[in-house]
Design goal:
Number of strands: 12
Strand order of the largest sheet: 10-11-9-6-7-8-12
Strand content: 5-15%
CATH class of the largest domain: Alpha Beta
Distance between the termini: 121 Å
Shape: globular
CATH architecture of the largest domain: 2-Layer Sandwich
């Protein structure tokens, strides 16, 4: 009888070489299904081959359920290591593989069998030397995203604050960096209109990453101009917002913090008693800063927006109860702190809340708007400051920087944003004609139209035109072909000063005094 594959007679054990190969593939499939212990019938091909003659009859199974031929092959693969295995007992694992044993053999050691499977699995991915052609990327541990609960008007980005070039998310870093404690700084600004908190961690020199932020319109100065006192409802709104700030500060280990109150608490008769109530109910101790400090902090917060080409800048912060203006002149030796270059400053006792309450902010006609502009211009006339040279304005060495809700609103309307986006507004340039066009557009809208704009909203609809009147008076006093918008302010200035005082960005430099001797200030 000839073998159908090789043409030779079958071997004495009743199975040809081809049949043994088929049996080997069936054993591989059997190992994937569950191991060696399950009895398996001969393959159909072997059975068909055995029908042609009596020599190909199926051998009898042993008591353990294994075919006799498989048991013989198993003994040969062990190289005689377990010849004395009795029938009915499970086969023993070989103690040492033979030197000439194949790595992918039928009954090799489990580790060698596993390596054989891996070689077969990755055969198509390996080059001539057995190395992978495509290397898999190792996973990186990324820190949790920075928490920015209740941002100013839109969810800010998480990596760096606007004080940085900024910010598409926190940079990946190692687990070792996560285990180190963070140096966190906190700044709180309780103004006439807003309560704002910022928690940040210093990063590169002059920059920091925001960890948490909070902002809420509380209108603490509501009715202050008429009564001279903080109303009960206004104080309740402010205390409620400060409770949220206190809860955020308690959950973090803050290295240093500074909590300030500005014009509303400065001007109110009951400002000190209100802050005592804040301490009793929230545990926060706020300090009332003077107008000079407020002007300096506004400059510190916007220092990164003054380019190296600027030689003269007028920076203004239109607040709820006061407006701070600083004249900055930069010489050849520029200090790391922009506030060192303030030559003149003033603080006007008028803001968007006080001016709108005095003249009305809901229905503003062009005549009423001009009346508000003239009132602010009269205050600026008492500001003793030399005018900016025309040559500086024409050469581009001079420009305005505005940091307030008024200028950011104008920028958002100019950009026609469907929703206020701090990332697009902060740092944008507006020409003199564009500012005039935006003011005229807002003046043409009624109260409902302003409230419907997504960059204004109902909370600011009665305040924005009063802010535009203050802006117009500043533009008439210091004409400039362009103005830069800053969505930042006192909080950023507080953080920058605290980090600089602690030397977190310094590399072996000695601390220097930061108050210029030639700074002159007036309070209108």
């Amino acid at each position: 009888m000839s073998d159908p594959d090789s043409g030779k007679a079958p071997q004495a054990d009743g199975a040809s070489v081809a049949e043994r190969r088929k049996g080997k593939s069936s054993r591989r499939a059997k190992r994937k299904r569950g191991g060696h212990g399950r009895p398996n019938a001969y393959s159909a091909e072997a059975s068909q081959a055995g029908k042609s003659g009596p020599a190909a009859t199926r051998p009898a199974d042993d008591e353990a359920g294994f075919p006799a031929k498989k048991r013989k092959r198993r003994r040969r693969s062990r190289n005689g290591a377990a010849d004395g295995v009795q029938q009915g007992s499970p086969p023993q694992q070989p103690q040492a593989a033979a030197p000439n044993q194949r790595a992918g053999g039928d009954h090799a050691h489990p580790s060698s069998s596993k390596s054989g499977k891996n070689r077969r699995k990755h055969r198509n991915k390996r080059g001539l030397q057995g190395r992978p052609l495509v290397h898999e990327k190792t996973a990186q541990i990324v820190a949790p995203a920075a928490v920015n609960a209740a941002p100013d008007r839109a969810p800010p980005r998480r990596d760096h604050h606007p004080a940085t070039p900024r910010r598409d998310g926190p940079a990946p870093h190692s687990a070792e960096a996560d285990s180190r404690p963070m140096d966190l700084y906190a700044a709180l600004d309780l103004g006439t209109n807003n309560c704002r908190l910022l928690i940040a961690q210093p990063t590169r020199p002059g920059q920091f990453r925001v960890v948490d932020a909070f902002s809420r319109i509380v209108r603490l100065g509501e009715g202050l101009g008429a009564s001279g006192r903080l109303s009960g409802d206004a104080m309740d709104r402010a205390v409620e917002a400060l409770r949220i700030c206190a809860a955020k500060l308690k959950t973090r280990e803050i290295r240093r913090m500074r909590l300030i109150a500005t014009e509303a608490c400065r001007a109110a008769e009951n400002g000190e008693s209100f802050l005592s109530r804040v301490t009793e109910e929230t545990g926060l101790r706020l300090e009332i800063i003077d107008r000079e400090t407020e002007a300096r902090l506004a400059v510190s917060g916007c220092s990164s927006l003054v380019g190296p080409e600027a030689r003269s800048v007028v920076l203004f912060d239109i607040g709820g109860g006061s407006s701070e203006i600083a004249v900055i002149r930069i010489g050849e030796n520029r200090s790391s702190r922009l506030a060192n270059h303030i030559t003149h400053w003033t603080s006007l006792p008028v803001g968007v809340v006080t001016l709108s309450e005095r003249h009305g902010g809901r229905d503003v006609t062009p005549e009423l708007f001009e009346t508000m502009v003239c009132e602010v211009a009269g205050m600026l006339e008492r500001f003793d400051c030399p005018p900016v040279q025309r040559a500086a304005r024409d050469s581009g060495d001079f420009h305005l920087i505005g940091t307030s809700g008024t200028v950011t609103t104008l920028a958002g309307v100019h950009l026609d944003l469907p929703r206020y986006d701090r990332r697009r507004v902060d740092g944008v340039w507006l020409s003199d004609d564009e500012v005039s066009a935006m003011q005229a557009k807002l003046l043409s809208w009624d109260f409902a139209g302003r409230a419907a704009n997504p960059c204004i909203g109902p909370d600011r609809a009665d305040l924005v035109l009063a802010g535009c009147a203050i802006l117009e008076a500043i533009r008439r006093r210091w004409p400039s072909p362009r103005m830069r918008v800053a969505d930042r302010g006192l909080r950023e200035g507080l953080l920058t000063d605290m980090m600089a005082d602690d030397g977190v960005w310094r590399r072996g430099r000695s601390r220097r005094g930061h108050r210029p001797k030639d700074m002159k200030g007036t309070q209108a």
